[in-house]
Structures are given as C-alpha cells and as structure tokens.
Amino acid sequence: MRRDSADKPDRDLRFDVELIRARLASASRPLSSAFDAQLMAAAVLVLLVQREYGLQVLLTRRTAHLHHHPGQISFPGGRIEASDASPTDAALRETAEETGLQPDVIELLGELPEFDTSTGFRITPLVATTRPPLSLAPDSFEVAEVFEVPLGFFLDRANHQRHEIFWRGRMRQYWAMPWGDYYVWGATAGIIRNLVEVLEG
C-alpha cells in the first residue's frame, strides 16, 4: 500500500537545513579514492524537500526497460560527462533531465563520501535542498515515478535492514530500507546510511 508523507507520523524535526549544512561541513570524510579506470564516475543529488511537516527525501523509481538498475529506487543522477565541470554540475544536470527540477530552485548543502558500487560506478553524492511547490516534469524514458520519503523514516535505524546475497562469485552485503510499496536498497540505501551517520555523528 502506498504511503503519503503528509499523513505519516514518522516525521523527525531534530534536523533543519542549517544544522544539516553544519554537520556536512564538519564531518570528517576520507580522501577521494585513487583513480580506478574500471569504475565509472557518477554523481547523484540527495535532495531534501522542505515541507511544513518536515524534511522529505526526493527519490525516483527507474523505468523497467533501462539497462542499468531497471525498476529500482534511486536518487536523481548519473554518469559524469566530459562536458560537466564537476560532480555538482553533473548531479544538477541529471536532476533537471530526469525530474524537471532546475538548478535555480536547488540549494547545495554539502557532500557525502564517494560510494563505490559492485556494478562498476564510483558515485559522488551531493546533498541539497529545495522548497515546494515543485515543478516536476519527469523524463518518461528514464523515470517511472518521483516520490518523497520522510527523512525521519531513514533516521530511524530500526528501519535499516542488512542483507546478504551471493553474486558474481562471492557473498555480498547490502542495506535495505523498505517504505510502503517502495524497496529502497543497494547504493541508494548505502548512501542514505552514510547521510544518517553524518547527521547523527
């Protein structure tokens, strides 16, 4: 059953935008990983929507026909192209292409540690915020749905599940955070886990 953020009691008002900005600025981050030609550079936008009932995390559900991660829950983002001046530019460009949200309505707050995936990507997550109303125009080829999850849901570590799977010759572990009909897992859940650790210290 689908859950509406506005109707949910799992709101968490401990964190506002300025506190999140300060936590991101003060968090110790490992140095950027050494160059690895086998990993594709990518960037995503962890976008926090400032609703009156609390901060919401904007996510997308990818369309089922895509080659990479079909049907999965993800942040707006993608590969860093040669035309992108920085991971930030890539994340903002991809967000505009996928959701219709333009850079001028997005305020950057900080950056999380790089996240390497078992599928060959090195992701730079940028944390940002925006205010409603949101002028969404999802790309129907890539995005099946844009939705929001309360930040408070992700801050509750009781909602974090650790799983194992045997894949490509070895046992691998991954995080999952199911929310209603949405199964948030893999790199998206791993990045959310890193955000929670930064915010809660």
Could you explain the architecture of this structure?
- The structure is a single chain.
- This protein is 21% helix and 36% strand.
- The chain is an alpha+beta fold.
- The chain has a domain at 11-27 and 37-151: Alpha-Beta Complex (Nucleoside Triphosphate Pyrophosphohydrolase).
- The strands form two sheets. Strands 1, 2, 3, 4, 5, 6, 7 and 8 form an eight-stranded mixed sheet that branches. Strands 9-10-11 form a three-stranded antiparallel sheet.
- The longest helix is centred in the C-terminal third of the chain and has 15 residues, at 186-200.
- It starts with 16 loop residues before the first helix and ends with a helix.
- 30% of the residues are buried.
Q: Give the C-alpha Rg.
A: 16 Å
Number of helices: 4
Largest sheet: 8 strands, mixed
| Overall residue-averaged pLDDT value | 88
CATH evolutionary superfamily of the domain at 11-27 and 37-151: Nucleoside Triphosphate Pyrophosphohydrolase
CATH hierarchy class name of the domain at 11-27 and 37-151: Alpha Beta
Number of strands: 11
Name the beta content range. Answer: 35-45%
What's a concise summary of this model?
This protein has helices at residues 17-26, 87-99, 151-155, 186-200; strands spanning 40-51, 54-62, 73-74, 77-79, 107-111, 115-116, 121-130, 143-150, 161-167, 170-179, 182-185. The protein has 201 residues and is α+β, with helices and mostly antiparallel strands. The strands form 2 sheets. Strands 1, 2, 3, 4, 5, 6, 7 and 8 form an 8-stranded mixed beta sheet that branches.
